[in-house]
Structures are given as structure tokens and as C-alpha cells.
Amino acid sequence: MRDGLSGRRFGIALAVLLVLLAFGTIAFRLILHESWLRSAYRAVVSTSLTGLDSTPHGTGATLVTIVLVLAGVALFAYVAGVVAEALLGGLLTGAWAEKRRRRAIEQMQDHFIICGYGRVGRRVAAEFRDARTPFVVLDYSETAAADAKEAGDAFVSGNGTDDHSLREAGLERARGLVASSDSDVDNLYIVLSARTAQPGLLIVARASTEDAAQKLRLAGADRVVQPYLAAGRQMANLMLKPQVSAFLDAVTSAAGPDLHFEEIEVTPASGRAGKTLRELQIRQATGALVIAIRQRDGGFDATPLPDARIEDGDVLIAAGTLEELRALEDLFAARGAVAH
To answer: What percent of the chain has pLDDT over 70?
Structure first.
């Protein structure tokens, strides 16, 4: 809007200038009876404040010259004001926006950091946005900065391999980090830097090959995703089990239907360990359904029976509406902590 307003003002100034030149040319022509070219020359040098090579004769010509000089002074002062307002306004607006951006990032807690805002990073950001989960984008690309600004995402210009950039993105307050750069080498350095600075941080990394995936796990990534492998598996499942794949794709999207999944860790402080699902009556108390239990040894009970006993360190995988899952979190968080 500011650029449009400045453009309109410049247009007004140009129109006024043309009117002054036309007025001066006609006036000098009628008063001094000089040629049109000579009259136009007098009008230009008078309005532009560059002076005259000869003093105009007669009161009328002098008055016209005075009017053109005063109008020229006012016109150029007006143009200078427009230019100063545009420049100063742009500087102040940019500085204020940058200050607000930094303050917003400094106030974030338990957020995620997306290192790399390419195709994968933008998709991750879209899911976080739909889930209303706070996150910061960290990338050095001007294209990434423009895309993040257009989407309204918090953005830090820098490299995920740089410790200073990670700190600027709030690594010490972050819940997790996504290493989604197109480069396996960059992702490896990002994981190493983040894991060294924050040993307890949840880190998910992208890998293009199995060899890179193994190295990322050794570097400290909790989960490694291979987009090409995942895409191939999904395409095959869409052919072999189209309805199952469509259902899973819908319910695992943050913008999907009113059915969601959550992970709840069973902690010693929760007071729920050692009890069976039947004893806890989770379905009756919350409405949520426990569909799997990840046990402490890493194994999964994918079809837990009512007599399945939960222990400290187990993670319940539950499905339900947002209200039901919140009730389930309250059930286990009343005297303990919730694992996100």
C-alpha cells in the first residue's frame, strides 16, 4: 500500500510539473512575444530553479517568473518529502518487523525447528501449521525466506550446521528438530550439532539413501525418513490396498477428519503403571481407544487385549477425537507427564 501511495504522489507531482511548464510557456509567449521554444526554455529554467540567462522584461514576465520559482520550490520540496517518507518508512517498517520476528522467536517454548525449507520442509511446515504447532524455519536461501514470509512462518536466515543459527532459532527451548535439507551431508552436520547442544532433543532427519540413514542414526537422529523409499511403499500400497492407504493418509494428516492419534508415555509418577487396560477403563473414562502399546524394549503390541498390562516406560498409541485424546492425556498427566 505504501508503494502504491508513493507512486500516486509521484504521479501528482509530475502532473503539477507539466501544468507549470505549460502555464509558463504560454504566459511567456503572450507577454514577451518570444518563440515557443524560447518561452518553454524560460519556463523550464524558472521552474527547475536553475535561473535565467537574461532577466525577463516587464512586470508581467517578472511576476510569472516569481510564480514559477515559488511553485518549483514547493514542488521539489513535496517530491523530496515523498522520497524521504518512502525511504525512511521502509527502513522503519523493516526494522520493526525484524524486531517483532526476533521477539516472537525468543518467546517460543517447546517448538520445533525445521532446518531446510525445500519441498519436504514446506510439507512439514504445512502439517505443523494445520496442527497449530509452533515452529521456526531455519534456512539461508532467499527463496526459502520469501516462501516462509508468504506463508507467515517464523524464519531465521542461517544454516542449520551453524551453532549460532541454531541458538537464534531457540534450540535450547525447542521440543524437536527436523533436518530436512536436500543434502545428506548437511543433514548429518545438523544432527551432530543439534544432538551435541541438546542431548534430549527429539530429532527427525531426512535421508536419500540407506547408507545416509545409517550415518544419521549414528549421529544421533531418533528417526530417519527416506522420502523415496516411503513414496515407493505408499504407491505400492495404493495399488494393493487402496482403501486402507486412503484411510491412513486421511487420519494421519493434521488437517484430516475428526480422528486423531496421540502418544502417551506411562511414567512412574502417573500411578497407572502395573494396571491392565480393563482396570483403567480408558475407553469408558475418556472415549479414546488404545490401538497399540510400544513397550520399553521397543516392541509393539499392535492389538492389545483388555488384560494387557502397561508398565513404566510403555507408550500408549491412542486414537480418538481431540476432546477424547485430551481426556486421555489428563488421565495420565494428573500425576505425571505427557510425552508428545
So the answer is: 86
Alpha-carbon span 108 to 174, nearest angstrom:
8
- Rounded CA-CA distance 245/288 in Å is 22
Instruction: Show Cβ contacts of residue 17 under 8 Å, excluding neighbours closer than 6 positions.
Output: 47, 75
Domains within the chain, CATH numbers bracketed:
2-103 (1.10.287.70), 109-225 (3.40.50.720), 258-340 (3.30.70.1450)
| Residues 302/339, Cβ–Cβ less than 8 Å | no
Query: In the 3-class helix/strand/coil scheme, how is 257-277 assigned residue by residue?
Result: CCCEEEEEECCHHHCCCCCEH
Residues with Cβ within 8 Å of 206's Cβ and at least 6 positions away in sequence, in order, are 116, 120, 178, 179, 180, 181, 187, 224, 225, 226, 227
In b/e form, how buried is each residue of 143-169, taking b as 16+ CB within 10 angstroms? Answer: ebbebbeeeebbbbebbbbeeebbebb
**Distance (Å, whole) CA 209 – CA 193:** 21
Q: How many percent of the chain have pLDDT more than 90?
A: 28
Residue 221 has pLDDT above 50, yes or no: yes
Determine the pLDDT at residue 137.
95
Contact (Cβ atoms closer than 8 angstroms) between residue 129 and residue 107: no
Residue 203 confidence (pLDDT): 96
Check: CB of residue 218 under 8 Å from CB of residue 209. Answer: no
Q: Cβ distance 46 to 32 under 8 Å?
A: no
pLDDT tens digit string along 252-290? 665 555 677 888 888 888 788 888 888 888 888 888 888
The angle formed by the CA atoms of residues 222, 225 and 229, to the nearest 5 degrees, is 150
pLDDT for 3:
46
Q: How confident is the model at residue 122 (pLDDT cuts 50, 70, 90)?
A: very high
Phi, psi of 84 (to 5 degrees): -65, -40
154-157 sheet: strands from edge to edge:
154-157, 135-139, 112-115, 176-179, 202-206, 223-225
